[in-house]
Please model this.
Amino acid sequence: MRREATGLGRRGFGAAMGGWWGPLRGTMLLLAAAVLLTGCPKKPEVQTGAAGGTEVKKAEPMVEGPAKPGAKGAESQLKDVFFDFDKAVLRDDAKKTLDENIQWLKTEAAVKIMVEGHCDERGTNEYNLALGERRAKAVREYLAAGGIDDKRLKSISYGEERPFVLGHDESAWKWNRRGHFIVVK
Amino acid sequence: MRRLVRILPCLVLWVGVLSVSGSAQVDITVTRTVVQRIPIAVVGLRPARLEPGGRDVAAEARAILTDDLDFSTLFEVLPPAFLPFPPREIRLGEEDKVLPSLNQLQVQAMVAAELQERGKELVLEGRIYNVSRGTFLGGKRYFGDVAALRSMVHRLADEVVLRLTGERGVASTRIAYATAERGATELYLMDYDGHNPVLITGNRTINLSPRFSPDAKLLAYTSYRDGNPDLYVLNMDAGRRTKVSALPGLNISPAWSPDGQWLALSLSKDGGTNLFLMRPTGAGLRRITNGLGISVSPSFSPNGRQIAYTSDRGGSPQVYMMDVEGTNLRRLTFEGEYNASPRWSPRGDQIAFVSNRGGGGFQIYFMDPSGSGLQQMTSLGANEDPAWSPDGRHLVFTSTRGGQKEIYVMHADGAGQKRLTRNAFNNFAPDWSP
Model:
């Protein structure tokens, strides 16, 4: 194998090079020495031994176990609030809903809640995580300003990862840009 | 003299490898422009059936090799019918019989290959030729289980690219992405052509934003595994996961510096969502943006000196650029109410990003790092999450053109857009391995 291949190489190469390398000989020798030092193979790499070659393996999964279930939250009669696209400003209807939620939270003084911020599917997942965070914080701040002890409140963003309604138009999106409440204790 | 003559082809290759222009011209002496492909013949791979009547693995190998070389945009594989001999009947050792006729057809390159069974393994041998000069450029032999056939052929395809152009091929690279399935979003790795998807999380929560380290050994990602969106680094050799950032609020949108020494990420621990730098171990946390706005999706320039990212400091999400210390801030996009997800090309000449300008929904665009030279790359459905192949010749992205979110690839000129993921779920957030 090697002999044949080398023969081809010389024949082709001699024809291609002609005599142009003559004047460059000194430079070429230097470069050639550098090539030798860097280990460029000068012979075909095909190995003829039975064990020759590189072993290739199929990729394996790297699976971790399921996460430990956290403290399970519960749904409640606290109502969701909704937002405009790319906005975390509380609309008037949202404030009205939150005022009702504040009344309920005042009667249920032992209840602690998690405020979830959600987005519709438009825009990037990473930006929407930050937008959901901002919505959750806006709700949390409104509740605190309304007299709910912030120690009873936590917040988290799910961005666009947990849509409430599946769909790809405003009829779904308007329900997915929301603040949602989970009773954690 | 004899020795010099033997060394010279090697020298040509060596100089080519060092060329940084990306259009490294090595053994094929025709000046290659962006669109000119090297005509190549794939010969050999005589039918090899695993068992009588079973699948012809050599035909599969031939198809995979042809697809790889075509996709590279560097080669044009000649259709078998175009060749003056039946290409699959050529055995290794008979190459010199066909080289002259290929040369007459102006075919510039040839790969001859053979696939054989050795016990329970397959052995794939390939030899690469410069047809114009009649030179043998190198050969490789790979062996492995039949399940590794695709990977073996991808390795050979990359060897062909390397030997003939001096560039590193991408056929053996992989794509990480997220799949939203049955109430959880898990991360997967697949081959660059969409085959062999394997699960790499499995915690049944939300896992997002996979990002390969420059040495491809580590994968940074966000996971809700412990309830909060925290940042993890997965060591893919050891299968070990490390939680590297778990501050209150968001620990999201990682990006590796080109030297692998830093991770940029977004944290919301103290009002606003700001960009920070830290070591991949989680040490040395350093803030680089300030304020109550949103700063996410950082992307380092290839020289590591600048970061492009998404910020809403001007009232809507727009692409900004700053020096890595957080100084010299400038806005790159002004048109449209939503510009985001910048990704610097490996050569540094383009930034891919997402924009909803022009009323056509979210589409992928390119601009140069000054913010000019705008090019629209997609128009069907909503398209997001652009990420470059390591050679800068292709992009992977998310598109809804087929109804749900799926992973697609395209060449860097926008051509050849094709779907990679084929499952019942939404697939998104791709990242292409080095």
Confidence is low (pLDDT under 50) at residues 1-34 of chain B. Chain B touches chain A through 95 residues (CB under 8 Å). The first strand of chain B starts at residue 38 and ends at 44. The helical segments of chain B are 2-18, 57-71, 95-104, 149-165.
